[in-house]
Amino acid sequence: MSLLVQKFGGTSVGSVERIKAVAKRIALSKDLGHELVIVVSAMGHTTDELTGLAQIISSNPPQREMDMLLATGEQVSIALLSIALHELGVPAMSMTGAQVGIVTESSHGRARILEVRTERIKARLEEGQVVVVAGFQGTSLSSGGAAEITTLGRGGSDTSAVALATTLGAELCEIYTDVPGVLTTDPRKVEDAKLMPTLSCDEMLELASLGAAVLHPRAVELARNYGVTVRVRSSWTNDPGTTLTSKNKRSLGRSGLELGRPVDGLELVDSQAVLGLSHVPDKPGVAADLFEKLSTDGVNVDLIIQATHEGNSNDITFTVDEEELPKAQKICEAVLKQIGGYLVTQSEMTKLSISGAGIMGRPGIAATLFETLSRRGINLRLIATSEVKVSCVIDSSLDAKAIRAVSESFELDESQVKINPGVNGVGEPEVRGVALDQAQAQVSVRGVPDKPGTAAALCSALADAGISLDAIVQSERQQKNGSRDISFTLKKNDRQQADNALAPLLAKWPGAQLKDGPEITRVSAVGAGMPATPGTAARMFRALAEAKINIAMIATSEIRTSCVVAKTDGLPALKAVHTCFQLGFQDD
Ligand code: ASP
Ligand code: MG
Predict the structure, then answer these.
(1) 341 CA distance to ligand 1 centroid (A)?
(2) pTM for the full model?
(3) 190 CA to middle of ligand 2, Å?
């Protein structure tokens, strides 16, 4: 007999009929002999409606009272569902977050879960009861020791469910929702988007906007860290949905369930070479031609970065295994002969990466990494960031120093440091899903000094203002005074604030200035098999070139390749990439 946690979202319990249907489904699972902990959201749009009521009275209601108000939504649905189960003859008992002992931080409206006390639930399960728990809520111990009701933030019931599965050691956490599972891309944008039967939590996190539309990212983060298997499926059908997996197995520490270390791995790969092409023409097909030639000749490219420039030229930088440098160099030279541009190469380089689900949404992490390295005088040759990874390329002679500094900074022990671990993702698909991010803006800081600490200073200033950067690219070319440009993308909503955040810094760099790029969107292809499959990036660039789409920026990470394109090219780019990797059902 196994223990299952099943979560039903707002639409799944949106009416009395739906609640009765859910009760029947639970009764069937019970008949199969499972022990069941059920987590439910508030009925339908209850949370929105309650928020609306408060807003009629006040534009700025106290957060504590908002939590008191919103937590009632889930209290209604757990009671009704338990009543429905009783009607079917299934012994059931509802419990609020406080009754269970879902202990959270005291920050109202966005509390993170510290601990789930399991005694009370376990006692009821032993009696053969189905335990129905209110999602989205918990209890904090306020300064005077008095318990307060807290909520986890909108969409937080998913996180409640995975937290319960983690602490109870459930075999599976099933999330019943109004979509069939996780699709290869947004079906509203690409008609033939297809269900993914499985994917890893890391892939889900890298698919950012796509994944977040299905599951609360904090739930995915918990599942990833503690190795909980999560299945997302429709509450309307019996289809199996999408199974999310994770190989990690953190033990329940004392630091608080959702508070553990944000970074849990450091990886170094040495004997890398960097090839930097500058002043290449900015037109469709250039990246496709170059990387296709490399891939045809069997050169496996790792990081790829392309920055935009004023005028009509680009810089493209990439890394390969040092052994492949002579071959790669020859190919680049041949290409440059035809299209124009310059090549610089550098060997004896190391790729250093930190990883962890906690990197997502916490801009301070990348800033800390860059600061840690720059304080030791280590220059960053290349930077690549994604949702769960930050990589940079440094001089190999500084490896030992870097390992010490980074391990100390992120409190990593020896077991979390891997040196030349070998290729990941063998046997996995090169691309599993494709996402379009339309909320990004592109910005460049022109003329920054080329010395250790520049990227760190930029990232820290923005991180202090709570602004996350993506696709940070340092230009290949240097201005006459030795300065470089750094380009990045950030959320459109943060753009205004970035001016203020960077002003003091820019004042210190003579001639440096912040420039807005044209309106853009970002297309990202994600697949665990990407590092093990040569030519993935080339195929993506070719698909874009064939659709006559110009690539403004390229940024890759271990399992993600992203291209920034003009805003108007976003949808066609998404479709082209989705089709090129044969992700749709039309390709079956
Ligand atoms: N009812 C809460 C909300 O709408 C929590 C949830 O549904 O996950 O945000
Ligand atoms: Mg929800």
Answers:
(1) 54
(2) 0.94
(3) 23
346 burial (CB, 10 Å; 0-12 / 13-18 / 19+) is middle
- Candidate of 75, 137, 154, 220 to mutate for ligand 1, largest count of ligand atoms within 8 Å of Cβ: 154
Residue 535 confidence class, pLDDT cut points 50, 70, 90? very high
Residues with CB under 6 A from ligand 1: 9-10, 41-42, 47, 73, 135-136, 154-157
Residue owning tokens 């033990």: 251
Tokens 């002003």 belong to residue: 503
The single residue listed with the structure tokens 């990202």 is 524
What was the pLDDT predicted at 91? 98
171 with 313, same domain: the answer is no
Domain of residue 385 covers: 263-587
Which has the minimum average pLDDT: 158-167, 253-262, 346-355?
A: 253-262
Count of H-run helices and E-run strands, the chain? 17, 27
- Report which ligand 1 atom has the smallest distance to the Cα of 42: 1
Q: Which of 214, 245, 276 is the last residue of a domain?
A: 245
Query: Which of 186-195, 224-233, 505-514, 527-536 comes out lowest in average pLDDT?
Result: 505-514
Query: Alpha-carbon distance 176 to 161, whole Å?
Result: 11
* 328-351: average pLDDT: 95
The dihedral sign for the CA sequence 500, 501, 507, 510: negative
Distance CA 121, CA 123 (A): 5
> What mean pLDDT value characterizes the chain?
93
Whole-number Cα distances in Å, 60 to 51, 55, 138:
11, 8, 22
Cα–chain center distance at 60: 31
Are 21 and 132 found together in one domain? yes
* Tens-place pLDDT, residues 181-219: 999 999 999 999 999 999 999 999 999 889 989 999 999
- Give residue 10 CA to ligand 1 midpoint distance, Å: 7
Q: Which ligand is nearest to the CA of 215?
A: 2
Q: Is 452 helix (H, G, I), strand (E, B) or coil?
A: coil
Residue 131 has pLDDT above 80, yes or no: yes
**Number of domains observed in the structure of the chain:** 2
Same domain for 519 and 483, yes or no, is yes
Three state DSSP letters for 475-507: CCCCCCCCCEEEEEEEEHHHHHHHHHHHHHHHH
pLDDT, greater one: 260 or 560: 560
In this structure, the strands spanning 313-321 and 301-307 are: antiparallel
Query: In the beta sheet, which residues pair with residue 525?
Result: 434, 561
